[in-house]
Every structure is written in C-alpha cells, then in structure tokens.
Amino acid sequence: MSGPILSIRGLEKRFAGIVATNNLSLDVQAGETHALIGPNGAGKTTLIAQLQGELTPDGGAISFDGADITREPAWRRARLGIARSFQITSVFPAFTALQNVALAAQARERHGFRFFKNASADSALTRPAMEALTTIGLDSRADIVAEDLSHGERRQLELAMALAMKPKLLLLDEPMAGMGRQDGQRMTKILAGLKQNYAILLVEHDMDAVFALADRVSVLVAGAVIATGDPAAIRSDSAVKAAYLGHKG
Amino acid sequence: MAETKATLAKADGAATRVFAPIVLLALLALAPTLSNAVDNPFLIRLFTRAVIFAMAAVALNVVLGYGGLVSLMHAGLAGIGAYAVAILAFHDYDGSKFVGIFPGTGNLAISIPLAMILAGLGAAITGVVSLRTSGAYFIMITLAFNQMLYYFFVALQKYGGDDGLQILGSLDFFGLDVSKRATFYYFALAALTVETAFFALLVESRFGIILRACAQNERRVVALGVPPLRYKVAAFAISGAAAGLAGAMWATGQQFVSPSDLSWVRSGDYIVMAVLGGMGLVWGPVLGAIVYVLLEAFLPAWTQFWQAPFGVVVILIVVFLRGGLLDLVGAKGARGNGGGRG
Amino acid sequence: MSPSLFVEQSLNGVQLGVMLFLMAAGLTLVFGIMNLINLAHGSLYMAGAFFAATVFQLTDSFTLAVLVAVPASALVGAFVEWAVLRRFYQRSHLDQVLVTFGLILVFNDVVRMIWGVVPVPLSPPDALSGPVHLFGGVEYPAFRLAILAVGALVALGLYIVVSHTRVGMWIRAGASDRPMASALGVDVELVFSLVFSAGAALAGLAGLMAGPITAVQVGMGEPILILALVVTVIGGIGSIRGAFVAALIIGIGDTFGRVLLPPALGSMVIFMLMAAILAWRPKGLFPVHG
User: Fold this and answer.
1) Where along chain B do its domains lie?
2) Which of C232, C262, C282 is facing B140, going by the closest CB pair?
3) Which is nearest to B276 in space by CA: B297, B290, B262?
4) For the whole model, what pTM was predicted?
5) ipTM for the complex?
6) Overall fold of domain B2-327
C-alpha cells in the first residue's frame, strides 16, 4: 500500500536563463500531508504548476500513482487524480457556488457532450457537489454567485471544487493566502479533517498551520529541496533556520 | 436571507428566460396580421428581415455571449448556407449537376439541412485553426476567414460572381410553398423559435456549462480535467450550423444571394445586434435584431446619412449601456456570462 | 511565366508588401503597446487618400498633397485617440471591436457627406507618371517604384526608431510593462498618443500612395485593413519585425496567387497561408506576448 503516490526526480525548469527549478527531487507518500515551505521566489508555485501540468519541465521526470506523467497535458493529469487549488483564487465568478462545484463533479463524470438536460437540475452532479460543499462547510452558501462570496468563502469554494474531483492528490497552493486569523484557523480545521482521506502537497507560509497539519516538511530554496523531515526535525535544522526561518525573525 | 435572494433570482430568471421570449415571439407572429390590417406589405418585409437577422444573431450569441468568442465570420457562415440553397436551386432549375455529379433540388427539406451541415463544417474547420489562438488573434482570424469566404463566392463566376445568384425555380418545404410572403414569414419564425428553444436548453446543459465556464476561466476548466478546445470547436460548429440555417432562410426569402451578404460589415452588424439586445440571454439578440432593422429602416427617412448616427449609437451603447437594451429594464443576466471579456 | 513578367509581378508583390507593412505597423504597434484592436485603422488610410486628393485638386501639386495629408491623418488619429479610443485600452476586446466598428460607420458617412460617393481623382506626380526602364528591358511604372522605395525607407526608419532611440525604448517599455514604464517616469499617455498618431500617419501615407493606383473612394480602407490584419496575425501581434516579414510574404503570395491560380483559389491563397502558418505557430512567426 505504502510508497510514494507522487515522485519527482531531477526536475528542471528555466525561464529566460533564470533557474526556477533546479534538479529537484521529492516524494509524496500515499496518505501523507507533505508541506512545502521556502522563501518567496523559491519556486514553489512553479513546482506546483509543473506537477499540475500548466508548465512543462525542461528536464527530469514526474510519476504519479505509478505512471510517468511528465508529458501529460494538464487536463489528463486532473482526470488521473491530481487536483490543484490556486494561489490566486480561481473560480467561475458568474456561477453559483453549487454550479462551480457541480462542474468539478461533471468533469470527473465526463459526459460533457450532453446538449439538452439541464445540468443544474441533474442530481448526479448536484448531489456530490452538495456533499463537497457540506464537507467544506459552505453548504448554506450554495446558491450564492461566486463573485458575491467573501474572499475566505471563495478559498473554501476552491477547495470544495478540488474535492468534488475525487482526487488522489491535492496540490494546495497557499490555501490561507489573504485570509484573516479567524478564517485561517477555520481553514486549518477543514484541512485537518481532509488529511485522513487524501494525500496532500501543501504550500503554505503560515507556519502554525504547516506544523499543525504536516506529516513531513520539505524546504525549498532557489528551486531545490535543501531538507526534508518531520516537522520537529525541520524546526531544529540549522541549515533551514539559516536559509529560511531566520529571515522570518 | 440567502434563501430568499436565491428564490427571487430564480423567479426573475424564469421571467426573463421563459416568459419574455414567448411573449416576444407571439408578438412577432402578429406581424402579417398587422401588415394586412394597415395594408402595408413593407411591414412584413421588414419583420422577415428582422426574424432572419435574429436567427443569425442568436446563433452568434451562443459563442459570443456564452462562450466569450468574438466571431467576425458569422456573415460568412450564413453565406455558406445561403449559397448552398441557391446553388442547389440553380441546378434544379436548369437541370445541370453540381460539379457534374450532384443534382440540384428546390426542396428545402433537403437543402436546409445540407446548408446547415456545410456551414457547420466550415465553422469546425476554421474553428480548429482559430480557436487554438485566443483573444485578439481569434477576432482577427475570424475576420480574415469571413473575407476569404467573401472572395471565394465573388470568384465563383458560374454562380453569378460579384452580381449574386438569383433563385429562378420554386422552393418548397415538403410541398409547402414558401413563396407567399406570409407563409414564408411563419416558416422563418417557426425556425427562429425552434432555434431559440434549442439554444436555451443547450446553454443550461452539461455542454453549455463547460462552454460558459471556458469563457469565465479557461485555466480552471483545464485544471478540473476538461480539455477546452473540443468543446469550443463543437460550440462554434453548432453556432455555425445555426448561422447556416439563417443564411438558407435569407436566400429563400430573398430568392437571391450575393457576396455582399457575406461582407464582414454584416458580421459586425450581428455583433451589434447581440450586444444591443443583451448577450446574457439566448433570446436577447432577437430584440437587438428588431431594433437594428427598425433603425435601418427609419433612420434614412430622417437623414440620407444614416450610418453615422447608427455608428454613434453603437459607440454610445459600448460606452454607457454595457448590458444592451435589457439593462434598461434591469433584467438579470443581461451582461452575459463573463463572456467576451477576453 | 516569362522572366520579364516574373520581375514585374515580383515588384508588384513587394510593392503591395510595403503598403501592407505601412498599415500593419500601426495596427501591430497599437495592439502590442496599448492592447487595442483598431478596426478603424482603414479609415485613417482612407482619410490620407482623401486629404491628398483634395490638396491635389486645389494646388495640382503632389508634393504639397503629401506634406498636408500625412500630418492631417496623424491629427485625425490623435483626435480619435484623445476623444474616444483612450477610454478603451483597458476594456474588453469585444468593446474595442464594437467601438472601432462604430467609428468606421461614422468615418464612412462623414467622408460621404464631404466628398460624395463618386471616386475623387488623384494622379501621380508628373515626374513619376511614366515607366522606368529596368535591367533586361523590363518596364515598370515609376510611381510604383517610388512607393516601394518610400515603404522600404519608412520600414528602415521605424526599425531604427523602435530599436535604437529613447522614444523607441519608451515604446518597448510601454509594451512590456506599463506600471514599470510609469514608475520610470515615462509619460505613458503621451507615448500612447504619439504611437497612435504615428500609426495614423503611416496609414495615411499608405492611403495617399494607393490613391493614384486604386481609387479614392468611400470604404477603400477596408480591403487593405483585412490584409493588414492578416499580416499582423501572421507576424505575431505586436512585432514590427514580424509585420515586415509577413507583409512581404502576403504581398508576394497574393500577387502571384492571383496570377498563377484560378480566381476562386487565387483570392484565397493568403488566407490559406495564414491558416497554415497559424496551425504551425498559433502566435505568429515572431510571437511577442508569451
């Protein structure tokens, strides 16, 4: 059973000569919550984008669930079970919360070429969508148009969309970005509930959340992993302190 | 609170999405009666023109208002449909064969579906090239393809070239003689009704949801596991086929088709109609087409130079009335679905 | 095809190419820098031709016509930019299409009001009205050759301005990063106005040079606008170098397509070319954005 669900080997990515990902190797074990921390510009979002498929790496290999996905297009990776939430909230602003999540459920179900039946009244889509909203605690806001939701609610909505894809791996790019203290604590609680059921690669700046949630932590500096270990070990690692935590004061 | 707001939104949605178009189409059905009552055949000609423009504008709006795709080639696509009907009628009349193989026909039950298939194919082929690009590229490429179709039909000397092609034989639909003005009007109005109902279902279907989602946030669509291109090409082809239907109706009603019907300016007019009526509703462009035809008919009565005032109207609408005329009555969703924001 | 015909058609192709470049340069700069789709660019071409024709009728001097028409076109461009278009840089492409479409209708009618619907005569200057004898006994109209030379000079000048001067640096800064350009103290609004007016001047120049060859009449800018859009798209929107290469490809492709192929195909050649190039490179030959 155990063994890595996601395995990255020697990943390379350059933008106009600037190295964004530098011979990066990393494993995410099945069922683990793996946090990725590092200073701004360390290449965290670039890495997430390469894992999700929006960016193509210049070198190295990514394997997911035993299959090489380095060259797979993003939409196919999503179907294989990789769900990403974006650092900058990315939802469908003109759809209701329920429609947003129902579309995620529909993407999983396929059958996009159905032209007549009203999708918003299709319980095969709305039921799982409602379930995902309930899991995330957004069920009371199901009929609100996404652009009318608060920032914190939209972050939750993104997570609900990811869940409705029934993924094997969640790539969460700063799920607490821009949240107040209260919203952040609620999100931490939600994620704590999810970590039983999903493998998670979590990029986050909120160290309280990271140390509360993560089973293992990797530190990314200048596009490469400089240390991986359990939270306690990382907290006391002197190299990490020097490279990263030290900057935070 | 949330409950009430949602319920209200739904009620409003039902009013603008279901009842209003039914009322509008029913009113349109009165045009021949009205025309007879005031004994003015000009009226029915005017409304025939409006109904056919409406078909093209409704077709366009599915990709424009719902898919966010600013197509400037819908006049060209409609032209494919128009020439299909006219060329088939041409061969039917003189008994010759198209490229020496296919016999012509004056039966619209054959030529209309064929017109739609050809226009849909044309849209699919050009769509594969143009939809791989985005935003500004798409607009310019569709404009170029529109001109390509224009020049193609200009160059077809056999079918009238620059002068256009007159339909000399008679056209019928399963024996229904559509040469009578009123009969043809009802025939076209029925087609518009079917088209509008079809698209009203389509935009709420799974397919429609994906199309609308692509207009709002294509990156997210991909991240959910849906490859956008095939849906956009399919939507463009369906929209193209519907434009082909409008073109076929145009040729039938006029008994004539000419390259000037394919001018890119006409494509621009269709966009104006869609925006004028309101892109956020399937039937919005019907209203836009009616207003357009009325302006086109009555502005010249005041001034010889009616295009300048019309151009000013267009500019003012863009500057002030961003949801079209439906904004004036405060209809929900007149603004579109995040479409056209590319 | 005889060698002399080949030479003549090649010159025709290059001449069309430089005309298209003059048009496409304005389009591509305005799009690349201000992110504006300007369908009314053809109206500026038309304006240039009409101004020149009027001055020519009054003074009988082509030189004077050029000297008046080019700045006049730039002024019209500056006015339209100031009065209408600068409000649309941040708006959606759909809004830009609509507003410039509206402008075309207005322009056409205004021209109709002033000059009527009958084409206005404009003949080439006397010095350039005859043919020139080229090598191998090929005769070629001097005026067309002059167009070719002017176009080549303008292309060269534009290249130098954009890539080697301070103004050009501003232009490139405005194109790639507007906030950064502002922060560096570049008056972005002024740069935009200048670029738009320069584009208008080039379009006017193209229009007045086309006048003696085609006809000075309402709507004359629209066919060339479409070709210029094709050029812009093939070259990569925003790329001057791309516009130049694509303009020559389209100019030569269109000319030879019409000579060598049956009419139905010949008129479609450039669009097929466009489709083929975009299928291969969706962002054009010299992509600028991403």
Assistant:
1) 2-327
2) C232
3) B290
4) 0.91
5) 0.90
6) ABC transporter involved in vitamin B12 uptake, BtuC (1.10.3470)
